[in-house]
Amino acid sequence: MALLTFIGAVQQVTGSCYLIESRQGAKVLLECGMHQGRREQQELNRSSFPFAPRELDAVVISHAHLDHSGLLPRLAAEGYRGPIHATEASCELLELMLLDSAFLQEKDAEWENRWRARQGKPAITPLYTTAHAEQALSQRQPLAYGKTQEVAPGVRLTLHNAGHILGSAIVELQVDDRRLVFSGDLGNTCSPLMQPPARLSEADVVLMESTYGDRDHRSSEDTLEQLAAILQQAHEEGGNVLIPSFAVGRSQDLIYYLGRFYQEGRLPQQAVFLDSPMAIRANAIYSHFHHQFAEQDRAALAARCVRRIEDWLPVLRCTPTAEDSMAINRIRSGAIIIAGAGMCNGGRIVHHFKHNLWRENCHLIFPGFQARGTLGRQIVDGADMVKVLHQRIAVKATVHTLGGFSAHAGQSQLLEWAGNFAHRPELHLVHGELEKMQALQEALRKRFDWHAHIPEPGERIAL
Fold first, then answer.
1. Are 157 and 148 a contacting pair, CB within 8 Å?
2. pLDDT tens-digit profile of 34-86?
3. Signed CA dihedral, 67, 71, 73, 79: sign only
4. pTM over 0.90
5. Bridge-partner residues for 175, per DSSP?
6. Taking CA atoms, which of 236, 239, 249, 362 is between 20 and 30 Å from 201?
7. Handedness of CA 216, 220, 225, 230 (dihedral sign)
8. Secondary structure of the chain: what % helix, strand, coil (to 5)?
9. How are strands ordered across the β-sheet holding 17-21?
10. Which secondary-structure segment (H or E) carries 430?
11. All domains of the chain, ordered by start, with CATH?
């Protein structure tokens, strides 16, 4: 009897991880994501894996975001030496994401150990190192969309476009005589550059994300009009605009949208800074895989003879070095600053908060979901004062949220995607906060008379 164990992203949105065991004894790990958010959630990244890494036959990753891939180096550190399957674009983005994450793990441990030494406490080790990341990267096995490959005895893998970020995949696994489909992160059909998520109709078991299971997003055009109005207001008030953004996916979306404004003569700011070394490198990977862009957006770029994403927005300035980044802090008005991390739990955006968040003429735009326990969530929830780089900073900036820019499907899109399956397969909701899951569960019941199961952490079921 084949088995499925729900390990991570169960009643929460990070730490995606599921273990599949075939009747023949093969073990395939679906996702190996990092826990993000509150400190206690991050501490879960150091917990023992509830399986023996050396006994795994294969690992499958839906896309490169760290909440789906970020513990791969730790898996390698604990002895896993088998293949790591992902799409071709995801394999390139994984190199970017994992090496950067390893560098941050090493730097964080170095900083922590300086503090611990002064306190007379023992030193800690990094969660993983660059060498561990390089080992994991050496195990990548790219698989093109639509191709099928046997990844372990009795387990065949096919990847379909999920439309979330470049290389993102819906994972289809044929396990013995049962077909498991995992949605991965389904894209918002309004997202620029990305093709719409593939529609599948056959499955015995479906795992579906529920990040926005409780609501729909604003329309893309309404959101763009809101963004244009914010930029105009910031221009008139004389402040800077801060946009925390994920380096992979969201940053490229923003460059595309701001480029549209520039082409239409609707961008009042004369300087847009992409202050994220990772996003700058991700741009090159996006440009390399431009043939995977949505046809309409590909045509718009070709009409302007744009070969690199940066060329679509001529006022874009990339700031790869720390010196370049610090120089931005001398600019008091008229700049749009796009920087990571997307949920403000580190990265260069926090330095820009230190210099701008307390200014009443500053505008802060959140273009996507902010998980519980993150600095971004505190600000979105209305905090008057936040702790930034060990200092308390007043939140005087005008705060905006742009739900329509989410790279995740909204409730109606999730329902539409699920509705393509014939014969109502067994459905499990994952990758969402509990109340979002419950709202989606009720919506599925009302629309399709279809009961969706909400798993418990560690729950094990027969496939």
1. yes
2. 998 777 888 899 999 999 999 999 999 999 999 999 999 999 999 999 999 99
3. negative
4. yes
5. 155, 178
6. 249
7. positive
8. 35, 20, 45
9. 140-142, 84-86, 58-60, 27-30, 17-21, 3-8, 460-462
10. strand 426-430
11. 3-215+407-462 (3.60.15.10), 220-405 (3.40.50.10890)
